Amino acid sequence: MQFAGNAVAQGTAYMERNFNQWVNMPALRHYFNVNNMYVITKLKLLLFPWRHSPWSRSIRRTETGQMDGFRPPREDINSPDLYIPVMALVTYILLCGLAAGRQGSFHPEKLYVAASTATAVAFTELVFTRLGCYFLSIPFEASLLDLIAYYGYKYVCIIVVDVVDLLGAKGWVSWVVFLYTGFSIGFFLLRSMRYVILPDSAAGPSTLNPQRKRRMWFLLMIAAFQMLYMFFLIN
């Protein structure tokens, strides 16, 4: 028994060492550092972002006053997390299966198609953002996980639309819900990703006006495309 226990412990340690070579576990834990209050408040923010203020993220400092990164989600409502996007994505895939089942056309492949489509959309968004930042000479200060979190929030809005459809609401009701949630997630990203696309917004005259306008248009495109992605994923 002791030999088996040692073997399991050694195997676990080996897997952790190799896994940590590819995944930054401390950074990943940061995005899942949430609590119930954060989740509830964040869901309200995603659906009703209009009067929220401020949008800036809270900085964590050491005892000497040095900047030590950003506060985790449970301590800052403006901090992006991965818990809500992951749960929303899983729920979206299950709802796709449920909708297919109600139509009598369910097959496990439907879940695979939904997951593959969501992955393709996420990849497209990430590439578009990185290329836009490159061509506009935007210093990219956000991490890849930040972008995945921000773009993953749209699935909360998609779930709302899907649930309304599953409850039998059709026609103008469904379209009103779709348009509202599309505008809400667009507005949320417009304010939340401002520090990513316009990192020097507080610098004033140091940023040339034409360059700042191009960056602003790029940010508006990112926000506007959310509704397009939502329409594609829902249908």
TrEMBL record:
The name under which this protein is listed is Protein YIF1
UniProt-listed InterPro entries:
Yif1_fam
Q: Which organism is it from?
A: Phycomyces blakesleeanus (strain ATCC 8743b / DSM 1359 / FGSC 10004 / NBRC 33097 / NRRL 1555)
Q: Does the keyword Protein transport apply?
A: yes
Indicate the secretion signal residues: none
Which of UniProt's keywords are assigned here? Endoplasmic reticulum, Golgi apparatus, Membrane, Protein transport, Transmembrane, Transmembrane helix, Transport
Give the organism's phylogenetic lineage.
Eukaryota, Fungi, Fungi incertae sedis, Mucoromycota, Mucoromycotina
| Subcellular location(s) of the protein | Endoplasmic reticulum membrane; Golgi apparatus membrane
- Which positions, given as ranges, span the membrane? 82-100, 112-137, 172-190, 216-234
Membrane topology field:
Multi-pass membrane protein
Tell me the Gene Ontology biological-process terms attached to this UniProt entry: endoplasmic reticulum to Golgi vesicle-mediated transport; protein transport
- Which Pfam family, any one of them, does this sequence belong to? YIF1
* Chain's role: Has a role in transport between endoplasmic reticulum and Golgi.
Cellular component terms (Gene Ontology): COPII-coated ER to Golgi transport vesicle; endoplasmic reticulum membrane; endoplasmic reticulum-Golgi intermediate compartment; Golgi membrane
Which ranges of the sequence are coiled-coil?
none
The answer on whether this UniProt entry bears the keyword Cell wall biogenesis/degradation reads no
